[in-house]
């Protein structure tokens, strides 16, 4: 059990980085989240007029050249821009200096559910309109989903474990959890982990709209993402990145690092049911939550708050609620649960990263971010979803859930040290 592990195998969070529609740094992001501010509006990156969903949670007033070398930035996709900027934030927040570290024991695992969607569209158009010679030589490095990990390692000189995981909307939580395991195994002392996504593109929207997965509440963008509400009609796509710096407790203490909390548990599971619809009995997610809690060495009654996947889709919210009841029994009624996607939109592969940042900040501040737009609760979604207004609470342990297409589930447990 994690609580009995030696300091060399306990994993703590020492740095945070966030880029989202409601803030380009952790402090701004957190302040706007607690204020119930929505980052959703009409899409500006392309003309959405002919799309059934015309709204999204875009990162606006953004210039990657304020965060990264302009030449390098031009060679890479927008998803990598977000990941690099958030990783730089987290690394700085952790107070790390590679000059004092063994580079072979510093790793990076930053994933993306979709990767360089914009690059793919742009370069395919060049091929069709101008022939093969018009395609950029940087196309493949720009669009593949592991590139953010590789580029950030190059940036800081980290030679430890390095790759990118892909599990749709569970990607970032899997990256964070597997990084925890690498530290516990002794493969690294420090891991920079999370997810980045930038799929607000014509092809991205056309694909999800064709599935009828996105909200069509185009006349009221900031009210469109409404998890657990009876009137929900689909998710709203967001973009950005969420990154954590993880270290062994022994390493963090030896260098005198500020410790936010412990990443105490993690688990992954599969529904083995359907490629897009969650298991209607919530069995897969329930298994992930149960195993994550067990791996943390705690009881279900020790969980104070759940940051839900809460996508604002008819199936997800109902089945996630069912899974929570299945795992927690009577304690489910005492839990605070909220879906911050009501404000950030759904960051797909980056969702678990930004929601891990939220989980850590919840423990640090004792404040619960709300589920906004919850005005007419679905009778089948009958838990305490912290409706509409943030709340102060004593929070020592947080569970964060994420589900992905393919039936892939991930759950992480964060605990006060």
Automatic annotation (TrEMBL):
Family annotation (CDD domains): KAS_I_II
Molecular function per GO: 3-oxoacyl-[acyl-carrier-protein] synthase activity
Major site of localization recorded for this protein: membrane
Protein keywords: Acyltransferase, Cell inner membrane, Cell membrane, Fatty acid biosynthesis, Fatty acid metabolism, Lipid biosynthesis, Lipid metabolism, Membrane, Nodulation, Transferase, Transmembrane, Transmembrane helix
SMART domains per record: PKS_KS (SM00825)
GO CC annotations, alphabetized: plasma membrane
Reaction(s) catalysed (UniProt annotation): a fatty acyl-[ACP] + malonyl-[ACP] + H(+) = a 3-oxoacyl-[ACP] + holo-[ACP] + CO2; (9Z)-hexadecenoyl-[ACP] + malonyl-[ACP] + H(+) = 3-oxo-(11Z)-octadecenoyl-[ACP] + holo-[ACP] + CO2
Known pathway: Lipid metabolism; fatty acid biosynthesis
EC numbers on record: 2.3.1.179
Active site, UniProt feature: 169
Similarity annotation: Belongs to the thiolase-like superfamily. Beta-ketoacyl-ACP synthases family.
Name listed for the protein in its UniProt record: 3-oxoacyl-[acyl-carrier-protein] synthase 2
């Amino acid at each position: 059990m994690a609580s009995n592990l030696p300091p060399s195998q306990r994993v703590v969070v020492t740095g945070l980085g966030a880029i989202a529609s409601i803030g380009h740094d952790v402090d701004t992001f957190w302040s706007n989240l607690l204020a119930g501010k929505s980052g959703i509006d009409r899409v500006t990156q392309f003309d959405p007029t002919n799309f059934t969903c015309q709204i999204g949670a875009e990162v606006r007033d953004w210039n990657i050249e304020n965060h990264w070398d302009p030449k390098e930035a031009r060679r890479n996709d927008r998803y990598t821009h977000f990941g690099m900027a958030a990783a730089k934030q987290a690394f700085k927040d952790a107070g790390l200096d590679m000059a004092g570290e063994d580079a072979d024991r510093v790793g990076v695992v930053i994933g993306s559910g979709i990767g360089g969607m914009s690059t793919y569209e742009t370069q395919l158009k060049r091929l069709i309109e101008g022939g093969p010679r018009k395609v950029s030589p940087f196309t493949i490095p720009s669009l593949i989903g592991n590139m953010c990990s590789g580029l950030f390692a190059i940036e800081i000189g980290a030679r430890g474990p390095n790759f990118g995981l892909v599990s749709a909307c569970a990607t970032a939580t899997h990256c964070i959890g597997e990084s925890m395991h690498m530290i516990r195994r002794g493969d690294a002392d420090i891991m920079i982990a999370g997810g980045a996504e930038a799929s607000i593109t014509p092809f991205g929207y056309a694909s999800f709209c064709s599935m009828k997965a996105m909200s069509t509440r185009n006349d009221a963008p900031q009210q469109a993402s409404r998890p657990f509400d009876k009137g929900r009609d689909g998710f709203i796509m967001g973009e950005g990145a969420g990154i954590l710096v993880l270290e062994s407790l022994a390493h963090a203490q030896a260098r005198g690092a500020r410790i936010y909390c412990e990443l105490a548990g993690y688990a992954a599971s599969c529904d083995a049911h359907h490629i897009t619809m969650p298991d209607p009995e919530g069995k897969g997610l329930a298994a992930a939550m149960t195993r994550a809690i067990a791996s943390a060495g705690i009881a279900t009654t020790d969980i104070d708050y759940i940051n839900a996947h809460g996508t604002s889709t008819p199936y997800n919210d109902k089945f996630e609620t069912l899974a929570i009841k299945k795992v927690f029994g009577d304690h489910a009624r005492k839990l605070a649960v909220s879906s911050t996607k009501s404000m950030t939109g759904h960051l797909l592969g980056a969702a678990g990263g930004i929601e891990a940042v939220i989980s850590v900040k919840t423990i640090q501040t004792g404040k619960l971010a709300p589920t906004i737009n919850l005005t007419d609760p679905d009778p089948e979604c009958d838990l305490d979803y912290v409706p509409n207004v943030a709340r102060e609470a004593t929070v020592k342990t947080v569970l964060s859930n994420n589900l992905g297409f393919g039936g892939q589930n991930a759950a992480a447990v964060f605990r006060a040290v």
